Amino acid sequence: MSRPLSTAIPRSTVATTAATRRSVLRGLGLGGLAVGGASLLAACGGDSGGGAASGSGATVKFGINEAEGAGAAHDRLAAIAQAYQKESGTKVEVNAVDHNTFQESINTYLQGTPDDVFTWFAGFRMAQFAENGLITDLSDEWPIDGLNDSFKQASTAADGKQYFVPISYYPWAVFYRKSVFEKNGWEAPTTNDDFMALMDDMQGKGITPFAFGDKDGWPAMGTFDILNMRLNGFDFHMSLMAGDEAWDGDEVKGVFDTWRKLLPYHQADPLGRTWQEAATAMGKGECGMYLLGTFVVDALGENGEDLDFFTFPELDSSIGSDALDAPIDGFCVAAAGKNQEAGKAMAKWLGSAAAADAGNNAADAPFIAANSGASTSTYSDLQKKSAEVVGAAANIAQFMDRDTNADFANTVMIPSIQAFLKNPDDIDGVTASIQEQANSIFG
Amino acid sequence: MTYETPVAVAPPERRAAAPVRREGGVLSQRRGTVATVIMAVLALLWLFPLVWALINSFREYEYTQVNGYLSFGGWTTSNYRQAWSQGDFGLHMKNSFLITVPAVLLTLWLSSMVAFVLARFSYRFNLALLGVFLAANLLPPQALLIPVFRMFREVPLPYFMSDSGSMLNSFWALILVNTAFQMGFCTFVLSNYMKTLPHEIYESAELDGASVWRQYWQLTMPLVRPALAALATLQVTWVYNEFFWATVLIQQGDKLPVTSALNNLRGQFFTDTNLVAAGSIIVALPVLVVFFALQKQFVSGLTLGSTKG
């Protein structure tokens, strides 16, 4: 879904040839006047000139990936921007674009006229921007009080410098209805045997163990991630995502084979079901569990009081179950942004506990702050537990579409996983095809 | 549309022998029924998704999520109110208006001038020129994405015209791009239309001393009004519905036209499909209004040039 612009285009050196400009202006002016639309067009321009200094009196542009009216997610970011403006005296101009548009046009955004600071997430794609010189080195701003080493690690690109400031995260885990588990006397499994026994028991009672939907394309990536991390370990998973391991090797085939054996415990025909419909099936008690991010509560239209979760149990005792997907959201400074100083200063502040608190105090639903000094008083039970679980995890992955090349995730993995779900027996064919395409993308 | 040349003495038998035109044209009754059924089925196929969206835009998401879309109930109008405020459609409608109106006027003005020259004067390169205009029309905009993007990035504008200091993130860019992409088609239609105007009018205008400009502005333009009206209807629809360039060239949320702003109704993960349906209906309304208001012009404008006297 990303536009074919991923190769780095060196940042523009603004070529100001006066003649070009004048003739273009003249053309525009003539056209506008002649059709009598000049007055209409006058509204096209903006009025901001933009200061150049940082600190009081300066202006910093802040691009956020939530549109106004998007609810808590937007309210938090808007409140954070306001808090910074109040505290630093720097004027913050917010540019709110909806999440999907923002993400899909990130390449043209960064190479065009980006805002100084913008919302993004940790992982491979952030590192790619760093490599291509599209985002600014923030290593001078690190370390940031309250952000531990694993967050610093997640903010670091291949050159060992930090390009990112985290603010929040959410884990992927197996969600279930507390009331359903209580009624049936089930308990969250910790070993593989417990897990299999639980699923068999659910099936015996006429409940589908796992809700499952992959019409959207990305939800099943979470299943692949967790199976790969449980079977082959975190390190293998990360180097596989980076394109350094074979997709048609025994390890990946083993993942798909385990998945094939688990598929009978999942809802059938997942390709015709969105994650929202799958979540509803779990919410209504037709399915026992659902492997998804904490945003599963959004689809249930409730605050999640009757929800609980456990991390996916271990499948191989030599690997354990101490790794999970927990995507980290945060901020980068665009290299093409006009006000680098103000951008860096704001980025540093955004990592602070004060920034997280400002966001969480302003919205109905808080996020889980990355900063350990942030207040947890507004957290729901689910979030408190999330913070605990992620804190206890030894290794954290960012989710497939953030951990690997965007083109690979979207144009190769989504159709490949869907092909596998349609025909689970052709594992050799699917893995060979992935490898072939990985060769051309990773080189 | 039949045009009978008036003949001084018309033999009465011939007149009687002329086929009698009934409602339904040359179709017999039975074939007419078949045609009606086929058309009804096709119309249903076309209308079904629209009607389905319309119906569900009046239902609560919570109700349809629990009971499925085949159920009946959960009626509400709140989706429309919410879509309007959450999508900030007032602002984005204004943006669309500021882009569409100048772009359509500019397209019609420029292409009518080109068409006038192509139709009225015989240069050696006339055909080649028309070919170039048409060929440009065949290029998919996606193929031009990177060149146009980089070109616009390098074109500086003063800050009072664009607060990004370049063509990116300004309405100018969208107006220009839309004009450029629509001109080929408009030139083609208008020049064909202008060629059907009798040459004698121009000869007498010339004799009366009308300049080329006057022949264009005071003679040709009033005569091609039906075609201009038809094109204006089409162009408003196309430019208003344009989505691709807006998402590429505009990166500032508050400058997006309303079609791109529909995305505001989707969350990062969660999408209330009933709300999006309501938003889509709202966004489609202006086009429908324009089309129905100008429907008559549209049909007559498209067919007027099709028969030669």
Strand elements of chain A, count: 12
**What class do helices, strands and sheet pairing of chain A give?**
alpha/beta
Largest sheet, strands/sense/barrel of chain B: none
Strand order of the largest sheet of chain A: 2-1-3-10-4-11
Q: Can you describe what's shown?
A:
The complex is a heterodimer of chains A (443) and B (309). Chain A is built from 20 helices and twelve strands. Chain A is an alpha/beta fold and 443 residues long. Chain A has two domains: 54-170 and 328-397, 3-Layer(aba) Sandwich (D-Maltodextrin-Binding Protein, domain 2); 172-325 and 405-442, 3-Layer(aba) Sandwich (D-Maltodextrin-Binding Protein, domain 2), CATH 3.40.190.10. The radius of gyration of chain A is 24 Å and the shape is globular. Chain B is mainly α and 309 residues long. Chain B folds into two domains: 24-79, no CATH class; 88-304, MetI-like (MetI-like fold). Chain B contains 15 helices and no strands. Chain B has helices spanning 12-17, 29-56, 61-67, 78-86, 89-120, 126-138, 145-154, 171-195, 199-207, 212-223, 225-241, 244-249, 258-261, 273-293, 295-304. Chain B is globular. Mean pLDDT of chain B is 82; it is low at 1-18. Chains A and B meet through helix 1, helix 4, helix 5 and helix 13 of A and helix 3, helix 5, helix 7 and helix 8 of B. Chain B: This is Carbohydrate ABC transporter permease. Chain B: It is found in: Cell membrane. Chain B: Its main location: membrane. Chain B: Pfam families: BPD_transp_1 (PF00528).
